[in-house]
């Protein structure tokens, strides 16, 4: 009997083909583009260490195929998009979205050689403005693309942000999603402004949190005493496997609202898909689904997000990321980007890292499931293909002790 290779947390830093984490990632649908950013030119991208090109042909079909033409290796990122597919700029070989070679103009007119050329391709699907691909086995019959609630729900308002690109390992970002303590410290606000955000995420009274396993992954639940003895204020954040973070407190942390505003609970699902380019880079795809009553919610939200800080840097301060305070996203980039990958550091985890510990355990168990030939946690069974997948991210007031 073949023994299952031993894996450890350090394996999570590596996502190339044949690595434990790389083979695990290839069992899921991964975000690779957005509908609004896929225009009339090909887009060269790297996913899990593979160089690919994403395009939409003139008939509206989306293709994700190998970046380099199988003829002489030129980049199809510079190819011409046509009705039937994409044509290499070097010798005009034409490929459809499935990687079939349809035309080789320099070959004899009766040549059938093009039928022998099959280029690398991966299936793609669109959902709620985000483009996903599946790079695992059985590509002719892949598992269902999950109907993630923020992307699949009807009604309300949906907004898909432009893709963001990061120059550090994907896992640093994902672990951040189950570390609610950092919000009270790294992203702290002035406690004197009286808002819910500054009261709840107060570094002098950091809210207690639980970390619990869910069918999709891990949820952390931060709590403080509620307005009555039977209730509590709650802020949930979730990580769904393989690399999805969802939070629901955007309207309370970005807008100055009093505590009483939490009586209705959150009206937004803010979901983020992190897709590794390779071991040292990842892409982030973000979508919001808002069901509240404000018709101008998203323009107002944009106004609350300041750009990276631009205040004067001290002439003697040579730190590359200074200044960095004042923008939640920039603060995350600085702290996560300077950690080093998980295989390059020696963490000393404490009791407040219980969410991180539980997430690492869940991912390692999922990788072991793949190594044993099974479908890992988070892959949707075919009989559930039409179900809406809910990732929990409630923020508001509710009865005590609800998980």
Describe, in plain words, how this protein is organized in 3D.
The structure is a single chain. By secondary structure, the chain is α+β, with helices and mostly antiparallel strands. The chain is built from nine helices and 22 strands. Strand 19 and strand 20 form a beta hairpin. The chain is globular, with a radius of gyration of 23 Å. The two termini are 41 Å apart. 36% of the residues are buried. The model has no long low-confidence stretch (mean pLDDT 93).
What labels would you give this structure?
27% strand, 2 domains, Naphthalene 1,2-dioxygenase Alpha Subunit, Chain A, domain 1, 9 helices, four-stranded antiparallel sheet, 17% helix
Q: What structural class do you assign from the helix and strand content?
A: alpha+beta
Distance between the termini: 41 Å
How many separate helices?
9
Total domains, how many? 2
- Main beta sheet strand tally, sense and closure: 9 strands, antiparallel
How helical, in percent, are the residues? 10-25%
Strand content: 25-35%
User: Would you tell me the overall average pLDDT?
Assistant: 93
Total number of strands = 22
Write down the overall geometry: globular
Q: Can you name the CATH architecture of the largest domain?
A: Alpha-Beta Complex
CATH topology of the largest domain: Naphthalene 1,2-dioxygenase Alpha Subunit, Chain A, domain 1
What's the CATH C level of the largest domain?
Alpha Beta
Uncertain stretches: none
CATH-defined superfamily of the largest domain:
Naphthalene 1,2-dioxygenase Alpha Subunit, Chain A, domain 1
Q: Tell me the radius of gyration.
A: 23 Å
């Amino acid at each position: 009997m073949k023994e299952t290779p031993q894996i450890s947390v350090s394996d999570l830093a590596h996502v190339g083909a044949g690595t434990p984490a790389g083979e695990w990632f290839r069992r899921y649908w991964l975000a690779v583009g957005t509908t609004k950013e896929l225009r009339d030119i090909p887009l060269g991208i790297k996913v899990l260490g593979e160089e690919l090109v994403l395009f939409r042909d003139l008939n509206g079909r989306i293709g994700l195929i190998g970046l380099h033409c199988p003829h002489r290796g030129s980049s199809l990122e510079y190819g011409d998009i046509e009705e039937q597919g994409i044509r290499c700029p070097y010798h005009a070989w034409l490929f459809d979205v499935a990687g079939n070679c349809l035309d080789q103009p320099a070959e004899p007119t009766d040549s059938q050689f093009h039928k022998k050329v099959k280029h690398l391709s991966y299936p793609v699907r669109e959902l709620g403005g985000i483009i996903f691909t599946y790079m695992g086995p059985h590509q002719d019959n892949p598992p269902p693309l999950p109907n993630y609630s923020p992307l699949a729900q009807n009604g309300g308002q949906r907004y898909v942000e432009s893709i963001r690109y990061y120059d550090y390992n994907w896992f640093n970002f994902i672990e951040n999603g189950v570390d609610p303590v950092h919000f009270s410290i790294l992203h702290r606000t002035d406690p004197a402004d009286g808002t819910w955000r500054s009261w709840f995420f107060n570094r002098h009274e950091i809210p207690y949190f639980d970390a619990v396993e869910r069918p999709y992954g891990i949820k952390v639940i931060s709590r403080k005493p509620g307005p009555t003895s039977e209730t509590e204020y709650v802020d949930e954040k979730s990580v769904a496997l393989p690399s999805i973070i969802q939070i629901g407190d955007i309207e309370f942390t970005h807008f100055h609202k009093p505590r009483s505003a939490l009586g209705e609970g959150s009206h937004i699902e803010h979901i983020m898909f992190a897709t590794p380019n390779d071991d040292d880079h990842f892409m982030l795809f973000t979508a919001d689904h808002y069901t509240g009553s404000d018709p101008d919610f998203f323009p107002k939200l944009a106004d609350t997000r300041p750009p990276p800080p631009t205040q004067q840097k001290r002439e003697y301060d040579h730190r590359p990321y200074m200044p960095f305070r004042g923008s939640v996203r920039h603060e995350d980039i600085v702290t996560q980007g300077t950690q080093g990958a998980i295989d390059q550091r020696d963490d000393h985890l404490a009791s407040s890292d219980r969410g991180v510990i539980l997430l690492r355990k869940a991912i390692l168990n999922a990788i072991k499931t793949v190594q044993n030939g099974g479908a890992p946690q988070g892959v949707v069974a075919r009989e559930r293909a039409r179900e809406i997948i809910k990732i929990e991210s409630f923020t508001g007031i509710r009865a005590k002790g609800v998980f």
